[in-house]
Each structure stands twice: as C-alpha cells, then as structure tokens.
Design brief:
Helices cover 47% and strands 0% of the residues. It is mainly α and 68 residues long. The chain has a domain of 40 residues.
Length: 68
C-alpha cells in the first residue's frame, strides 16, 4: 500500500465515522499533486460504498472591511 493510498484510507475513515484526523502537513510535506491524489482516492472509496455526489459546497471569503 502506497503512502497516498494509506492517506486516502485515513481521510475516508474520518469522513465515514465523522471523526477528526490529524493534518498530514504536520508530519509530511505534500505536493499539490499528492493532495489531489489523496482526495481522488478517498472519493473513489466513497463512491464504491454507494455514496452519491449531489452538489458541491461553495464558500465565499468574507468581504473586506472597507466594503461595509
């Protein structure tokens, strides 16, 4: 099992059980490609369990103070 696969398993288990996981960046520096690979593998595991993607969450940053 590769480090990417193991990390995806950890992320998926955290989502499945609704529990916090430690930030990977505290123990290893990830490249952007590695982070996206972890996300993709984690999502594959969720889809394999029958979960469906029904939308995306879009969060806007707060407006600058000078806009109020």
């Amino acid at each position: 099992m590769t480090e990417i696969t193991k990390a995806a398993e950890i992320v998926d288990e955290g989502v499945r059980t609704a529990t916090d996981i430690a930030q990977f960046s505290e123990t290893k520096k990830l490249t952007l490609n590695e982070a996206y690979a972890i996300q993709a593998l984690s999502m594959q595991r969720r889809y394999a369990r029958g979960e469906k993607r029904i939308g995306i969450k879009w969060v806007s940053p707060p407006a600058p103070r000078w806009c109020s």
